Amino acid sequence: MVPHLVTSLTGPINELEQRILESMPVIERWFRLEWMEHTPPFYCSVDVRNAGFKIAPVDTNLYPGGFNNLTPDMLPLAVQAAMALIEKICPEAKNLLLIPENHTRNHFYLANVKQLMTIFHMAGLNVRLGSLDPAVTQPTDIQLADGSVLTTEPLIRERGRIKLKHFDPCTILLNNDLSAGIPDILRDLHEQYLLPPLQAGWAVRTKSRHFQSYEEVAKKFSKVLGMDPWLINPLFENCPAVDFAEGTGLECVQNHVDSLLGRIRRKYKEYGITEKPFVIVKADNGTYGMGIMTVRDAKDLDSLNRRSRNKMSTVKDGQALSRVIIQEGVPTSERIEDSVAEPVVYMMDRYVVGGFYRVHGERGIDENLNSPGARFVPMELARLMGQPQIGPAEPNRFYMYGVLGRLALLAASYEMEATDPQAEQYD
Amino acid sequence: MVPHLVTSLTGPINELEQRILESMPVIERWFRLEWMEHTPPFYCSVDVRNAGFKIAPVDTNLYPGGFNNLTPDMLPLAVQAAMALIEKICPEAKNLLLIPENHTRNHFYLANVKQLMTIFHMAGLNVRLGSLDPAVTQPTDIQLADGSVLTTEPLIRERGRIKLKHFDPCTILLNNDLSAGIPDILRDLHEQYLLPPLQAGWAVRTKSRHFQSYEEVAKKFSKVLGMDPWLINPLFENCPAVDFAEGTGLECVQNHVDSLLGRIRRKYKEYGITEKPFVIVKADNGTYGMGIMTVRDAKDLDSLNRRSRNKMSTVKDGQALSRVIIQEGVPTSERIEDSVAEPVVYMMDRYVVGGFYRVHGERGIDENLNSPGARFVPMELARLMGQPQIGPAEPNRFYMYGVLGRLALLAASYEMEATDPQAEQYD
């Protein structure tokens, strides 16, 4: 059962929201035509921020980790999407190999892995777990918080294929974002489907490349709806070589913060928005909410203390942060009870399969909510899927979140095509 | 919200159910391979009867009329399946023309039509209603019980296409079972998709042809699972020319009732089943639960009174009953509170999108429940989709109902291929 949201944005929806709701058949047809040309990146979760005056995706995760936060009622939708995926990729398949993150002692993450296994089992596959961790040399049991047990097994490379002992999969699904680099064992797998593709991993991918594709998608979409793309597109700039710990490259960051704040200020003025602009400075290849900072003035960077610099200098798996994206901050106007909230949309294939609110009681509307202390409140699915009007006085803004999530999904599809190392062969 | 079933079959599941649950990946793969060769008939609802010792579909409706009985939580699944359908049939489509039944004053049926319109609207199409009723010569409003209004419009035939005024659809979806015959306006539509195909209408289709295909499907499926097909297949025989009102052709019915009861008796003996066998005599091309009779002994037919004969002599739209199917009766062991219940499974494309129990307080376990006084209790969707075990003491028999529904769906696909008037061109 999906609980009703205790409180959320319930005021009259603004013009942008109204336009998106009214244009549903046009929007869905536009997506259909886009998906005829582009392949979605298997699965994806997108953080959306709704400022009231603007709504935009701010982070697109190609190795989503929160499937455990989807409610049982959302499961059938994920299973149906998984069935559609299998049919397209290899309908004759019996086996799916899932490669999770190595730090597999986190109970929440393990619950996510278990949920993914359930989804693909229900879609009709035998699912087993393979580990990229060299320390896993034999089948290893991991105890979950609910008492159940997951078994990870060592990967076996045989020429062009990856196997487990007595288990030859057709598809290898990564739920490991490859922050630590692309392992050799995953290279040159020409006989199996490895999804998402290697260029989706943080060893290769950058947020700025993603938001470059998103800008392209946002412009196309905005043209169809006859609106200013800025209303759905977060502006961004980037710096290629920054070391917060050593204090090098900070001038580049300051210059871009300054320039971006100027650009935002002009847009705010154009729309009569009185809020104070801010930007988010974050790792261009980071994840897990690490290495993220809210900046309201370029001068703030002068006074960064050692602790803040150290916090900004490493991201996941001990990787040093060096490339930085400076992104327009989009305040979130959603609240659950007294806490600041932002919608997170989950997709498989081209379908929205669920969503929840990330809620944080100790963060402001201009801060990153993906940090310790966050909790998750499910969204009502029927709304997320697009019932345009729930009741006479209750317009549905959940459909809009699904649209924004899918725009970011489509951008990831453009991005994967643009960064595909094989692509030049076909040019 | 989908309510929990107040009571349902909660005893230990028997061997058949256990085998189906354990074989989930094998079963799903088998369906995937079948769907590579066969196209499902757009949408479908199937009445399933679970006797405990046997479980079988007993009626397969290719123009399902109860979408209004699906809960709001099931809607997203139907929308996702509709999206997949549109993508396959005509992804560039903007418009869908829906042709409902003519007797459009029934509030329950109208709620079904409205629900179908909502599903296809949410999937991204403009949906309008066209009427086969010659009395509809201009747009006509129909008031629904909830106060909303549906508008039906006259169909316009232009050479190879059907249109409404200012509305040119890519696909025409029939929710009219054509009991009254195939109207000329629907023939030879070579430029548009007319779904389901004309041979799905009761003007052409027979139940015995369907169950002939179902037997073929049940045999294939049973071979995969290594079991006796009878455990999922209702035996049947048929008579081509019967007139209950005039009393002609009854000898044929009596002979087949006798022979079928004998066949069932032998199977009951083989499995040590102590229940008393019965058969269902019903119109071979009927619908709406009309013209259906439970017979426990061939002699019962001697003593049919005038009222019973008249009841058996007409089916929907005043069509005379002449072809009769005699089908093995499958008692239902499901109960909701004190009432006899049977599961009904809804599908779109190849996907189970919902289901409910048809419940009747005044009928026995060996009687047709599709009659005035029936009510509908939703099933829990997560179970229907196949979560193999809900709790340690609660095995999931809902997955099995979804499997049985899809076996009948697949049989309908075989049936449509076998009865396709165009098919010989490709032989």
TrEMBL record, chains A, B:
GN (gene name): gshA
Assigned EC number: 6.3.2.2
Name of the protein in its database record: Glutamate--cysteine ligase
UniProt KW keywords: Ligase
Organism: Amphibiibacter pelophylacis
